[in-house]
Amino acid sequence: MTNKIRTAVFGLGRLGYWHAVNVSRIRNAELAAVCDMNLESAQRVAKELEVSFYTANPDEIFQDDSIQAVIIASPTSTHFDLLKKAAESRKAIFVEKPLTLNLDEALEIQAIIEKNKNICQVGFMRRFDPAYDAAQKRIAAGDIGKPIYFRGISRDPQSPHEAFIAHSGGIFVDVSIHDFDIARYLMNSEITSVNANGSVLKYPFVKKYSDVDQSLTYFEFASGAAGDAEASRNAYYGYDIRAEVIGTEGSIFIGNLRHHDIHILTKAGVTHDILPDFPERFVDAYNLELVDFYRVVNENSTPRVTVNDGVKALEISLAARESYQTGRKVELSKLALR
Ligand SMILES: NC(=O)c1ccc[n+]([C@@H]2O[C@H](COP(=O)([O-])OP(=O)(O)OC[C@H]3O[C@@H](n4cnc5c(N)ncnc54)[C@H](O)[C@@H]3O)[C@@H](O)[C@H]2O)c1
Question: What pLDDT was estimated at residue 333?
């Protein structure tokens, strides 16, 4: 018999809304509360998903002992405070990437989580995506020999709104972090150095935040492998997420542009549709990562994506940002090699 885990979701914006919908549908979860700084958003989602407890004040949730788990999907700049309070009030935690905006905060959270023994899963959903998951299993089984090169492409159809950029940590911390995490996972090795470049090609306002809308990071692994990750806000055509792993005996391609598996044939030629944005591309992954989170909470076991993974991916992202800003290759500290 599994218990229904009473859960609160913080932040009901572009992604948090979908987490709330998924929680409301998962068999062994109960969406007990929703919280957004914008009370109208909280009220609207509460009404839609038939939740009686909605608030703009996170403390009301931390003080409620009947709530066992929290999902943090508010802006990254708010994660540190919410994580601390969630850990101190002994909730099981699912937190969106990036864990926090800086490494000191991330390490403080890691120490608190380890001390309190909270379950804490970080939202690197690509690990649960059926295509990335199948690729990982084939690589681990040796089907392409020894993996020697990773290539990641993460292109958004447009820039997020300015307030998001201001609280996001910039493109390396917000976007490339997904590729750094999945690269560690697929290549089964730690990234040891990064060398990054970037440009502002379409959205001049990102300069205010020392950010870019197009970037490329080259990196090396402890195994001797290498890789690169492109991040872009400029894919006007749609949401374009792909990866490739080259091995000594073959390669694996992950992802394609198609949304629905159809081709339209007319005298003008053959066309297909394109994935519009992240909720469509990762619809299965966002559900599967939460299904697994509730399994972990019920079993009181260890998540597949730990707080340590969150710290490591953040460290690599911050090093990439530093490399772009200084124009120099950055060797990762010993921390990443633990
Ligand atoms: N895993 C992914 O693919 C993915 C995709 C998008 C966003 N994210 C992450 O999710 C988080 C949210 O991103 P988003 O795009 O949904 O942002 P968003 O700006 O669309 O929404 C954020 C929401 O949080 C609310 N909010 C602000 N401060 C709050 C607080 N202290 N407590 C509760 N609510 C608060 C805002 O009112 C807003 O409704 C970020 O950390 C982002 O990096 C991850």
Answer: 73
How many CB atoms lie under 10 A from the CB of residue 265?
Answer: 9
Give the pLDDT confidence of 242-255 residue by residue, as tens digits: 999 999 999 999 99
For ligand 1, pick from 9, 96, 121, 239 the residue to mutate: most ligand atoms within 8 Å of CB.
96
Q: Is residue 130 domain-shared with residue 118, that is, in the same domain?
A: no
Q: What is the tens place of the pLDDT at every residue in 212-244?
A: 999 999 999 999 999 999 999 999 999 999 999
Q: Is the CB of 278 under 6 A from ligand 1?
A: yes
Q: Are both 164 and 273 inside the same structural domain?
A: yes
How confident is the model over 114-119, as a mean pLDDT? 96
Say if residue 338's pLDDT is above 70.
Answer: no
Please tell me the distance from the alpha carbon of residue 299 to that of residue 235, in angstroms, as a whole number: 42
Query: Residues 106, 147: one domain?
Result: no
For residue 268, the enclosing domain spans 126-282+313-337
210 and 155 inside one domain: yes
Check residue 332 and report its DSSP letter: P
Residue 336 has pLDDT above 80, yes or no: no
CATH number of the domain to which 26 belongs: 3.40.50.720
Residues 269 and 131 in one domain: yes
Instruction: Report whether residue 11 contacts ligand 1, using a CB cutoff of 6 Å.
Output: yes
Residues 214/133, Cβ–Cβ less than 8 Å: no
Q: How far is it, in rounded angstroms, from Cα 293 to Cα 262?
A: 33
